[in-house]
Amino acid sequence: MKTSIASRPARSSRPLSPRSAEFKSLDQAHQAALQMLLAFQTLVTRLDNEGLDAEAKKSAQAVLDFFDGPGRHHHEEEESKVFPGLLASSDAELAGHVRRLQQDHGWLEQDWSELRPHVQAAAEGYNGYDLPMLMAALPVFDALYRDHIALEETVVYPAAKRQLSALHKHSGGKPLVQ
């Protein structure tokens, strides 16, 4: 006997998992990072095609502000709130992924420290940026960032959310990540 969707009884509702609220800022930071990587690519293309104009200065300032601020703070939040519990788990493969992400954070910071002076020069309206260097280094920075985000979103965050959900059940529903 075939049952239509409309005639099926409604599913029982279950309380929302804490993961959606508690990981919202982390997920938003990834979306912002992807947007800033695109803005960074657009900036380098603009510098190559148009030179340093008002739009390039504005774009450079936005890139600078993000990678000096929210991008960096996002990694600090992961290091302090997401990674410790996963590193303490008995899952060696998962812990290996987390250590790789920690290493990525170091590499991203190092890459940014090399890119930053050139972006800052453009943001301040100086032609002291090295366009060939930006053109060569940005694809490496971009690829590492995207690969890093993909590993977090497909492996590490789901594991952290499962772990958080289990801890949340045992904590009486109190938030564990702000």
Outline the fold blueprint.
Layout (H helix, E strand, L loop, with lengths): L18 H4 L1 H26 L4 H15 L1 H18 L4 H32 L7 H40 L8
Helix pairs in contact: 2-3, 2-4, 2-6, 3-4, 3-5, 4-5, 4-6, 5-6
Explained architecture:
This protein is mainly α and 178 residues long. The protein has a single domain (25-170), classed as Four Helix Bundle (Hemerythrin (Met), subunit A) (Up-down Bundle), CATH 1.20.120. 76% of the residues lie in helices and 0% in strands. It has six helices and no strands. The chain has helices spanning 19-22, 24-49, 54-68, 70-87, 92-123, 131-170. The model is unreliable at 11-18 (pLDDT under 50).
Summarize the structure.
The chain is 76% helix and 0% strand. It is an all-alpha fold and 178 residues long.
Can you tell me the overall shape? elongated
Q: From the 3D coordinates, which CATH architecture would you assign?
A: Up-down Bundle
* Percentage of residues in DSSP E strands: under 5%
Poorly predicted regions: 11-18
Characterize the main sheet.
none
Return the structural class: mainly alpha
Helix content: over 70%
How far from one another are the termini? 49 Å
Count of domains? 1
SSE run: HHHHHH
> What number is the mean pLDDT?
87
CATH superfamily: nmb1532 protein domain like
Number of strands: 0
Broad CATH class:
Mainly Alpha
